[in-house]
């Protein structure tokens, strides 16, 4: 999977868990929490959906690594390749 | 073998079930009753074959009202977490409600400006104090689980001069969710203040059934199972760990159990001699009268949705020393949620605080007679609040604390549960968790969020 694919995976998940958000204007390096109305419950859902859809595990200690779209891609891409 | 068994198909149980099943857990809900709902349910009464009526029981209103698209509020969190659509709730807003005491009336609606202007009008000397209090409430982090108990009455009395205003503000918040008499923890007060005064009341078209249908449908869609008429008789524990539950159909093995029965009700059913903390049955229960009229109340005679009525010098939120206390009441006109439809039958609901022990001790015959007295008092209150209404009662029903106990299994008919709560949802038994009323979030939105938070915390985040 390319980094572009991984980015799309994350965006697709956010679109499903927060259908009211406009995702066309997301800035990659700004925290998702700041740009979108996402709370810790929503981050849990991102993690749960990654597991459910792609069998990718994110341990609780690594949740902070999902802070921005760029950090998501950096952290998750190696997991998709494995 | 289930990943999780949930005790009770009420709001919290269904919500927890949806969350767990959504992420591929094998989940089964066991419900004692033949329909879902628990404390917020409905029932049928048939007088003649063609004259069947369904009655909503439980809350008169759904709190935490938001408009479509509003973000960061409890109700919007609930929608996201359960993947439900705002429109599917078909919310109808209250017209307005009021707190009616002998010397003052405060109206409030889903626009907070109304309450502010009412306080300015009736309590001008305290208006600035009230605004400062609201500021404190808005800033307060009510979800801090480390917060220690703080008496609301004490805190409000320090900040507001007129004790009548303190009582009037507290009245709806106490009777819509306090398990404690006459006072409540300040963080609980803040939750209630925001949900009732800052957010407001609405009701789904179709009443509580609309919500229950949405939740059960979702739960089944994501792969959950529900077994009705199946009480959990024992919670089976070995070496302080959950093994499963015992039902009339046999033993059911499960890794986790989420119980919405209430704390004393749950502990009572734990199989093994574990030393469990004391959890008393709550002191507060109610009677409720449901009146059907041959027409709706004309809006020019009465256009409020809910009246928090008190006719005594002091508001007593406590177990009365008599069967019920008719000096105060909650009076609900469900027809005034959609004030545009005025034809068809009218409905009014009247709630009094009641003493469970006294109701429980009555012989059958006296019990029925006392229910007639509640009915007569309720009709009298209709005449007091709407003196010009000339509708005729076509159908009525009264339920008592013992009715509540029979259908909800809550000890002593304690609608708001035990005075002991398990705020973090944990028990001394590994993998046994408390959701719903005795976790401590109350109301329809509160109990749904209770099921969501506790199942997230221990059912989803725990592993990985």
Topology at a glance:
The complex is a heterodimer of chains A (82) and B (464).
Chain A: H1 3-17, H2 32-35, H3 40-54, H4 69-81
Chain B: E1 2-7, H1 11-22, E2 27-30, E3 42-46, E4 52-56, H2 74-82, E5 91-93, E6 97-100, E7 105-108, H3 112-122, H4 127-139, H5 152-159, H6 163-175, H7 186-199, E8 202-204, H8 208-221, E9 225-227, E10 234-238, E11 241-247, E12 250-259, H9 263-268, E13 285-293, E14 306-310, E15 324-332, E16 346-354, H10 356-360, H11 364-385, E17 393-399, H12 401-408, E18 432-434, H13 443-460
Structural overview:
The complex is a heterodimer of chains A (82) and B (464). By secondary structure, chain A is mainly α. Chain A has one domain (3-81): ACP-like (Non-ribosomal Peptide Synthetase Peptidyl Carrier Protein, Chain A), CATH 1.10.1200.10. Chain A has 4 helices and no strands. The model of chain A has no long low-confidence stretch (mean pLDDT 91). With 464 residues, chain B is an alpha/beta fold. Chain B contains 13 helices and 18 strands. Chain B has helices spanning 11-22, 74-82, 112-122, 127-139, 152-159, 163-175, 186-199, 208-221, 263-268, 356-360, 364-385, 401-408, 443-460, and strands spanning 2-7, 27-30, 42-46, 52-56, 91-93, 97-100, 105-108, 202-204, 225-227, 234-238, 241-247, 250-259, 285-293, 306-310, 324-332, 346-354, 393-399, 432-434. In chain B, the strands form 4 sheets. In chain B, strands 1, 2, 9, 10, 11, 12 and 18 form a 7-stranded mixed sheet that branches. In chain B, strands 7-6-14-15-16-13-17 form a 7-stranded mixed sheet, sandwiched between helices. Chain B has a two-stranded antiparallel ribbon with strand order 3-4. The chains are: A mainly alpha (82), B alpha/beta (464). Chain A binds chain B through residues 16-18, 20, 37, 39, 41-42, 44-45, 47-48, 51-52, 57-60, and chain B through 22-24, 69, 71-72, 76-77, 80-81, 83, 452-453, 456, 460-461, 464.
């Amino acid at each position: 999977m390319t980094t572009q694919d991984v980015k799309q995976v994350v965006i697709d998940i956010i679109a499903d868990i927060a259908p009211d958000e406009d995702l066309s204007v997301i800035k990659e390096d700004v925290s998702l929490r700041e740009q979108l109305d996402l709370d810790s419950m929503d981050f849990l859902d991102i993690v749960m959906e990654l597991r459910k859809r792609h069998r990718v595990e994110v341990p609780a200690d690594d949740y902070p690594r999902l802070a921005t779209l760029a950090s998501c891609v950096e952290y998750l891409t190696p997991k998709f390749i494995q | 073998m289930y990943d999780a068994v949930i005790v009770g198909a009420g709001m919290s149980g269904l919500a927890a079930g949806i969350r767990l099943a959504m992420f591929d857990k094998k989940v089964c809900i066991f419900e004692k009753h033949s329909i879902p709902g628990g404390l917020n349910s409905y029932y049928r009464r048939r007088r003649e074959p063609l004259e069947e009526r369904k009655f909503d029981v439980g809350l008169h209103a759904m709190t935490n009202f938001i408009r479509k698209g509003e973000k960061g509020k409890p109700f919007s969190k609930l929608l996201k977490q359960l993947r439900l659509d705002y429109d599917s709730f078909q919310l109808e807003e209250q017209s307005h409600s009021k707190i009616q005491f002998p010397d003052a009336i405060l109206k409030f609606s889903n626009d907070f400006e109304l309450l502010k202007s009412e306080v300015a009008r009736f309590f001008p000397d305290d208006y600035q104090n009230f605004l400062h209090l609201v500021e404190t409430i808005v800033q307060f982090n009510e979800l801090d689980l480390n917060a220690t108990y703080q008496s609301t009455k004490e805190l409000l009395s320090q900040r507001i001069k007129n004790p009548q205003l303190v009582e009037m503000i507290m009245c709806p918040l106490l009777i819509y969710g306090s398990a404690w008499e006459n006072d409540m923890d300040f963080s609980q007060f803040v939750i209630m203040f925001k949900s009732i005064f800052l957010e407001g009341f609405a009701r789904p078209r179709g009443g509580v059934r609309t919500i229950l249908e949405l939740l059960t449908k979702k739960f089944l869609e994501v792969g959950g199972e529900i077994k009705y008429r199946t009480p959990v008789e024992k919670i089976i524990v070995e070496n302080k760990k959950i093994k499963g539950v015992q039902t009339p159909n046999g033993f059911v093995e499960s890794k986790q159990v989420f119980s919405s029965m209430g704390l004393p009700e749950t502990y009572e059913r734990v199989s093994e001699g574990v030393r469990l903390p004391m959890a008393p049955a709550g002191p507060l229960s109610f009677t409720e009268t449901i009146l059907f009229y041959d027409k709706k109340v004309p809006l020019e005679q009465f256009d409020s949705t809910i009246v928090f009525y008190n006719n005594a010098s002091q508001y007593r939120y406590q177990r009365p020393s008599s069967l019920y206390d008719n000096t105060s009441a909650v009076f609900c006109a469900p027809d005034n949620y959609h004030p545009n439809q005025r034809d068809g039958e009218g409905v009014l609901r009247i709630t009094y605080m009641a003493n469970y022990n006294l109701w429980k001790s009555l012989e059958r015959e006296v019990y029925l007679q006392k229910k007639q007295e509640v009915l007569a008092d309720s009709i009298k209150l209709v005449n007091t609040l709407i003196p010009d209404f000339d509708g005729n009662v076509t159908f009525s029903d009264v339920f008592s604390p013992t009715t509540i106990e029979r259908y909800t299994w809550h000890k002593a008919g304690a609608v708001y549960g035990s005075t002991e709560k398990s705020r973090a949802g944990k028990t001394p038994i590994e993998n046994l968790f408390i959701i719903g009323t005795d976790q401590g979030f109350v109301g329809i939105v509160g109990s749904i969020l209770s099921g969501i938070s506790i199942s997230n915390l221990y059912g989803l985040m725990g592993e990985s």
